[in-house]
Amino acid sequence: MTHTPPRFDLAAFLPYQLAVAAAHVSRGFADRYRTEFGLTIPEWRVLAHLAQSDAISVREIHQRVDMDKSRVSRAAARLEAAGLIEKRENPQDRRLLDMRLTDQGQALVARILPIALAYQDEVLALLGTDAVAFVGALQRLNE
User: Fold this and answer.
1) DSSP code per residue over 72-130
2) Which residues, 6+ apart, have CB-to-CB distance to 34 below 8 Å?
3) Domain map (residue ranges) of the chain
């Protein structure tokens, strides 16, 4: 007697739908900042996190975002070479380097943020009246 596995519809599987939606939304925004500012997704994520912190390490960014530590490190190295961030020794743990935005990096983030917020408004508009519930559900999933 053979066992027939239950029918599985990947397109209806919530984890798959969330992953595809996240990739789609991320690529849509990435197209905008890549075209205008020449940034990659990892570079934008590093800049965005640094914009919210005075100083933060590669390890901390890696823990906060879904990105390999090596990708964070390479993005940080490119941003440092471009003069957008600077690295300094962490006073509590000399093995770690803290990163900070330079004045040039702060100016770039200030130019990107209105584009980011406008893109967010576009995505929320697509969700219509479901936007508030959807954002609340995402927050619960990310706790």
Assistant:
1) HHHHHHHHHHTTSEEEEE-SS-TTSEEEEE-HHHHHHHHHHHHHHHHHHHHHHHHHGGG
2) 40
3) 11-141
126-142 mean pLDDT: 93
CATH value of 11-141 in 2.60.120.620, 1.10.10.10, 1.10.1040.10, 2.30.140.10? 1.10.10.10
Order of strands, sheet of 56-57, starting from the edge strand that comes earlier in the sequence: 56-57, 97-101, 85-89
pTM of this prediction?
0.83
Q: Is the pLDDT of residue 111 over 90?
A: yes
> Picking from 51-60, 69-78, 90-99, 105-114, which range would have the lowest pLDDT averaged per residue?
90-99
